[in-house]
Amino acid sequence: MPRTIVIETDSHGYPVKIIRRHSHHSHHHHHIPHPHLHWDSHSHHSDKDHSTMRERIRELEEANSLLHRENTTLKSSLHTAESDLRHQRETITSLQINVRNLAVENGDLRRSLEAYESHSSQHKSHEKELLLKLVRVESDNSALRDKNSRLETEIRVLKDRIQVLIREVKEGVDERVKGLGREVKEWRRRWEDSDRRLGRMRATLDAVLRERDDLRVENAALRRTNVLLERRLWRRGSL
Q1: Fewer Cβ neighbours under 10 Å: the N or C end of the chain?
Q2: Which of 208, 167, 159, 216 is nearest to 187 (CA)?
Q3: Domain co-membership, 121 together with 190
Q4: Number of neighbours of residue 87 by Cβ within 10 angstroms
């Protein structure tokens, strides 16, 4: 009777013991070992477990690779968002300078109009209209400054949120394979929220630019009016 080799495995399918079984008369005869090994049910179970483990490892590696690609995309999007923020901040600074220049110009116009009041009473009604326009321009300038202040606040809040996103991307993402789907969905939602906020900021910035252009048009009209007034006063003085 040939000798049988049985390999016992643990609960994870790893070999723990090798048992050689002989027939009762094996000590009277010398047999050449059979080239085939007989595996019991434990060996079959071990092969199945190993296959399952390999498949699980492959799935985890694919999930980890997907997470890495998602994180790379998110980091690139965050970098773009930060670049947009820097550009918006520079634009707002330029607008603030324009607002200050317009305020100085408005002051000059006001002083010019006040000087004309002492020269001619016939232009009182027209000067009053100009003064009302100046008041409206100053009010618009004040509203523009308030909008700039709100934009700066939104930029600070958005920058803080982006910093939070960056920290969360860097902290142990690779260790959370089981929550891969939920985490990627959350990152995407946050990024879309940031993108929507940037869209609103761009819309607000467009409105500010339009208001600035309107102020320039009004100031140009005021300058033309002042020129006309100066010509009339000069003609009157020459008479």
Answers
A1: C
A2: 167
A3: yes
A4: 11
161 falls within a domain = yes
Give the residue numbers spanning the domain of 32: 4-39
190 and 85 together in one domain = yes
88 neighbors 147 (Cβ within 8 angstroms): no
Mean pLDDT of all residues in 160-185:
70
Count the neighbouring beta carbons within 10 Å of the beta carbon of residue 196: 10
Question: Is residue 213, in this structure, part of any structural domain at all?
Answer: yes
CB 187 within 8 A of CB 165: yes
Q: What's the DSSP call for residue 10? A: -
When the pLDDT of each residue in the chain is averaged and rounded to a whole number, the result is: 73
Return all residues near 210 (Cβ < 8 A) that are at least 6 apart. none
Residue 9: strand pairing partners: 15
**pTM tops 0.70:** no
Decide if pLDDT at 114 tops 60. yes
Q: 113 vs 71, 131, 221, CA distance in Å?
A: 62, 8, 14
Give the tens place of pLDDT for each residue, 174-232: 566 557 777 777 888 888 888 888 888 888 888 888 989 998 998 888 899 888 888 88
| Residues sharing a CB contact under 8 Å with residue 70, sequence separation 6 or more, in sequence order | 184, 187
Return the higher-pLDDT residue of 45 and 78: 78
Residue found under tokens 């761009």: 202
Check whether residue 35 and residue 116 sit in a common domain. Answer: no
Q: How many CA atoms lie within 13 A of 52 on its CB side?
A: 8
